[in-house]
Amino acid sequence: MDNTTPPQYYHFNQKPVRRAEFIMPPNTLKAKVGSGGLSDEILGKAQSLLENNAVDFMPLADMYLNTLIRGIDAAKDMNVDALSADDNEGLISGMLYPAMQLKANGGMFRYQMVTKIADRLIQFLEVIAKPDLDALEIVMAFQATIRAVVLGRITGDGGKHGQELMRALDQACERYFERYPSTREDLDHDYVNSL
Protein backbone atom coordinates (compact mmCIF):
# COMPACT_ATOMS: atom_id res chain seq x y z
CA MET A 1 0.00 0.00 0.00
CA ASP A 2 1.41 3.40 -0.86
CA ASN A 3 1.60 6.15 1.72
CA THR A 4 -0.40 8.71 -0.24
CA THR A 5 -3.82 7.06 -0.17
CA PRO A 6 -5.48 6.17 3.15
CA PRO A 7 -6.61 2.51 3.44
CA GLN A 8 -10.32 3.39 3.59
CA TYR A 9 -10.05 4.55 -0.03
CA TYR A 10 -9.04 1.13 -1.39
CA HIS A 11 -11.90 -0.71 -3.04
CA PHE A 12 -11.73 -4.47 -3.52
CA ASN A 13 -8.01 -4.28 -2.70
CA GLN A 14 -7.64 -1.81 -5.57
CA LYS A 15 -6.44 1.75 -5.60
CA PRO A 16 -9.19 3.91 -7.13
CA VAL A 17 -8.47 5.09 -10.65
CA ARG A 18 -11.08 7.83 -10.33
CA ARG A 19 -13.19 9.38 -7.63
CA ALA A 20 -16.90 9.87 -7.88
CA GLU A 21 -17.06 13.65 -7.78
CA PHE A 22 -19.24 15.15 -5.07
CA ILE A 23 -20.75 18.42 -6.17
CA MET A 24 -22.05 20.59 -3.36
CA PRO A 25 -25.38 21.98 -4.58
CA PRO A 26 -26.53 25.41 -3.49
CA ASN A 27 -28.28 25.21 -0.14
CA THR A 28 -31.50 27.02 -0.98
CA LEU A 29 -33.18 25.89 2.24
CA LYS A 30 -30.41 27.44 4.31
CA ALA A 31 -30.72 30.63 2.26
CA LYS A 32 -34.42 30.76 3.12
CA VAL A 33 -34.21 29.97 6.84
CA GLY A 34 -30.79 31.42 7.64
CA SER A 35 -27.94 29.86 9.54
CA GLY A 36 -29.43 29.90 13.04
CA GLY A 37 -30.73 26.34 12.82
CA LEU A 38 -34.24 24.96 13.01
CA SER A 39 -36.41 24.47 16.05
CA ASP A 40 -36.99 21.01 17.47
CA GLU A 41 -40.63 21.28 16.42
CA ILE A 42 -39.75 21.86 12.77
CA LEU A 43 -37.12 19.10 12.85
CA GLY A 44 -39.68 16.72 14.37
CA LYS A 45 -42.18 17.51 11.63
CA ALA A 46 -39.55 17.00 8.94
CA GLN A 47 -38.49 13.68 10.50
CA SER A 48 -42.12 12.56 10.69
CA LEU A 49 -42.61 13.47 7.04
CA LEU A 50 -39.60 11.38 6.04
CA GLU A 51 -40.68 8.41 8.18
CA ASN A 52 -44.25 8.47 6.87
CA ASN A 53 -43.22 9.06 3.27
CA ALA A 54 -45.72 7.28 1.04
CA VAL A 55 -44.01 8.16 -2.25
CA ASP A 56 -43.27 5.09 -4.35
CA PHE A 57 -39.54 4.63 -5.00
CA MET A 58 -40.10 2.27 -7.94
CA PRO A 59 -40.56 4.88 -10.73
CA LEU A 60 -37.49 6.81 -9.62
CA ALA A 61 -35.40 3.66 -9.23
CA ASP A 62 -36.63 2.40 -12.60
CA MET A 63 -35.51 5.64 -14.26
CA TYR A 64 -31.98 5.33 -12.83
CA LEU A 65 -31.79 1.58 -13.53
CA ASN A 66 -32.74 2.26 -17.16
CA THR A 67 -30.08 4.98 -17.33
CA LEU A 68 -27.58 2.47 -15.97
CA ILE A 69 -28.59 -0.04 -18.68
CA ARG A 70 -28.10 2.65 -21.34
CA GLY A 71 -24.61 3.29 -19.93
CA ILE A 72 -23.84 -0.44 -20.05
CA ASP A 73 -25.15 -0.70 -23.62
CA ALA A 74 -23.09 2.31 -24.72
CA ALA A 75 -19.94 0.68 -23.32
CA LYS A 76 -20.79 -2.68 -24.91
CA ASP A 77 -21.04 -1.01 -28.31
CA MET A 78 -17.47 0.31 -28.08
CA ASN A 79 -14.10 -1.34 -28.46
CA VAL A 80 -12.80 -0.09 -25.12
CA ASP A 81 -9.28 -1.31 -25.86
CA ALA A 82 -9.09 1.08 -28.82
CA LEU A 83 -10.52 4.06 -26.91
CA SER A 84 -8.56 6.81 -25.20
CA ALA A 85 -8.54 7.00 -21.42
CA ASP A 86 -10.88 10.02 -21.64
CA ASP A 87 -13.38 8.07 -23.75
CA ASN A 88 -13.32 5.19 -21.26
CA GLU A 89 -13.83 7.70 -18.44
CA GLY A 90 -16.91 9.00 -20.24
CA LEU A 91 -18.32 5.49 -20.54
CA ILE A 92 -17.69 4.79 -16.87
CA SER A 93 -19.28 8.12 -15.92
CA GLY A 94 -22.39 7.04 -17.81
CA MET A 95 -22.72 4.17 -15.32
CA LEU A 96 -21.39 5.99 -12.28
CA TYR A 97 -24.01 8.76 -12.28
CA PRO A 98 -27.11 6.51 -12.03
CA ALA A 99 -25.33 4.37 -9.41
CA MET A 100 -24.70 7.48 -7.33
CA GLN A 101 -28.35 8.50 -7.65
CA LEU A 102 -29.52 5.05 -6.56
CA LYS A 103 -27.19 5.18 -3.56
CA ALA A 104 -28.40 8.63 -2.57
CA ASN A 105 -32.10 7.92 -2.96
CA GLY A 106 -32.32 4.34 -1.71
CA GLY A 107 -32.02 5.15 1.97
CA MET A 108 -34.40 8.08 1.76
CA PHE A 109 -37.12 5.67 0.61
CA ARG A 110 -36.10 3.04 3.21
CA TYR A 111 -34.32 0.85 0.65
CA GLN A 112 -31.04 0.61 2.55
CA MET A 113 -30.15 -2.50 0.57
CA VAL A 114 -30.27 -0.47 -2.66
CA THR A 115 -27.96 2.09 -1.07
CA LYS A 116 -25.49 -0.62 0.00
CA ILE A 117 -25.49 -2.35 -3.39
CA ALA A 118 -25.14 0.93 -5.29
CA ASP A 119 -22.28 1.95 -2.98
CA ARG A 120 -20.39 -1.25 -3.83
CA LEU A 121 -21.07 -0.67 -7.54
CA ILE A 122 -19.62 2.83 -7.23
CA GLN A 123 -16.55 1.41 -5.50
CA PHE A 124 -16.13 -1.11 -8.33
CA LEU A 125 -16.51 1.57 -11.01
CA GLU A 126 -13.96 3.76 -9.21
CA VAL A 127 -11.19 1.17 -9.59
CA ILE A 128 -11.66 -0.40 -13.02
CA ALA A 129 -9.39 1.01 -15.71
CA LYS A 130 -11.88 0.49 -18.53
CA PRO A 131 -15.36 -0.98 -18.97
CA ASP A 132 -14.35 -4.26 -20.61
CA LEU A 133 -16.95 -6.98 -21.20
CA ASP A 134 -16.18 -8.82 -17.95
CA ALA A 135 -16.50 -5.60 -15.93
CA LEU A 136 -19.79 -4.88 -17.71
CA GLU A 137 -21.10 -8.33 -16.73
CA ILE A 138 -20.46 -7.41 -13.11
CA VAL A 139 -22.16 -4.03 -13.54
CA MET A 140 -25.15 -5.86 -15.06
CA ALA A 141 -25.22 -8.17 -12.02
CA PHE A 142 -25.35 -5.12 -9.75
CA GLN A 143 -28.11 -3.60 -11.88
CA ALA A 144 -30.16 -6.82 -11.86
CA THR A 145 -29.74 -7.17 -8.10
CA ILE A 146 -30.89 -3.62 -7.43
CA ARG A 147 -33.86 -4.14 -9.76
CA ALA A 148 -34.81 -7.35 -7.91
CA VAL A 149 -34.64 -5.56 -4.55
CA VAL A 150 -36.84 -2.71 -5.79
CA LEU A 151 -39.34 -4.96 -7.59
CA GLY A 152 -39.49 -7.22 -4.54
CA ARG A 153 -40.04 -4.12 -2.40
CA ILE A 154 -37.31 -5.31 -0.04
CA THR A 155 -36.91 -2.40 2.34
CA GLY A 156 -34.36 -2.26 5.11
CA ASP A 157 -31.04 -4.08 4.94
CA GLY A 158 -32.40 -7.31 3.43
CA GLY A 159 -31.45 -9.42 6.45
CA LYS A 160 -29.58 -12.68 5.88
CA HIS A 161 -30.49 -12.78 2.19
CA GLY A 162 -29.23 -9.23 1.78
CA GLN A 163 -25.88 -10.20 3.28
CA GLU A 164 -25.69 -13.19 0.95
CA LEU A 165 -26.41 -10.97 -2.07
CA MET A 166 -23.70 -8.53 -1.02
CA ARG A 167 -21.24 -11.37 -0.48
CA ALA A 168 -21.98 -12.79 -3.95
CA LEU A 169 -21.45 -9.38 -5.59
CA ASP A 170 -18.22 -8.85 -3.64
CA GLN A 171 -16.98 -12.27 -4.71
CA ALA A 172 -17.74 -11.50 -8.36
CA CYS A 173 -15.66 -8.33 -8.07
CA GLU A 174 -12.81 -10.20 -6.39
CA ARG A 175 -12.85 -12.85 -9.16
CA TYR A 176 -12.62 -10.05 -11.72
CA PHE A 177 -9.49 -8.64 -10.10
CA GLU A 178 -8.00 -12.12 -9.74
CA ARG A 179 -8.60 -12.74 -13.45
CA TYR A 180 -7.01 -9.41 -14.37
CA PRO A 181 -4.02 -9.20 -12.04
CA SER A 182 -2.43 -6.46 -14.14
CA THR A 183 -5.00 -4.06 -12.67
CA ARG A 184 -4.37 -5.31 -9.14
CA GLU A 185 -2.07 -3.27 -6.95
CA ASP A 186 -0.07 -5.03 -4.26
CA LEU A 187 -2.02 -3.75 -1.29
CA ASP A 188 -2.05 -4.83 2.32
CA HIS A 189 -5.59 -3.63 2.99
CA ASP A 190 -8.28 -6.27 2.42
CA TYR A 191 -11.32 -4.07 1.72
CA VAL A 192 -13.89 -6.84 1.38
CA ASN A 193 -13.00 -8.55 4.66
CA SER A 194 -12.60 -5.29 6.58
CA LEU A 195 -16.33 -4.55 6.50
Describe this structure in words.
There is one protein chain. The chain is mainly alpha-helical and 195 residues long. The protein has a domain at 56-182: Four Helix Bundle (Hemerythrin (Met), subunit A) (Up-down Bundle). The chain is 60% helix and 0% strand. The longest helix is centred in the middle third of the chain and has 24 residues, at 85-108. The chain is globular and about 55 Å long. The model is unreliable at 184-195 (pLDDT under 50).
Give me the CATH architecture of the domain at 56-182, please: Up-down Bundle
What is the CATH first-level class name of the domain at 56-182? Mainly Alpha
Q: What is the distance, rounded to the nearest whole angstrom, between the alpha carbons of the first and last residues?
A: 18 Å
Order of helices and strands: HHHHHHH
Rg of Cα set: 19 Å
Q: Which secondary-structure class do the elements indicate?
A: mainly alpha
- Strand content is under 5%
Query: Might you state the CATH topology name of the domain at 56-182?
Result: Four Helix Bundle (Hemerythrin (Met), subunit A)
What is the approximate shape?
globular
Question: What count of helical segments does DSSP give?
Answer: 7
For the biggest sheet, the summary is:
none
Q: How many DSSP-defined strands? A: 0
Please give the share of residues in helix.
55-70%
- Uncertain regions: pLDDT < 50 for 5+ in a row? 184-195
Mean pLDDT: 83
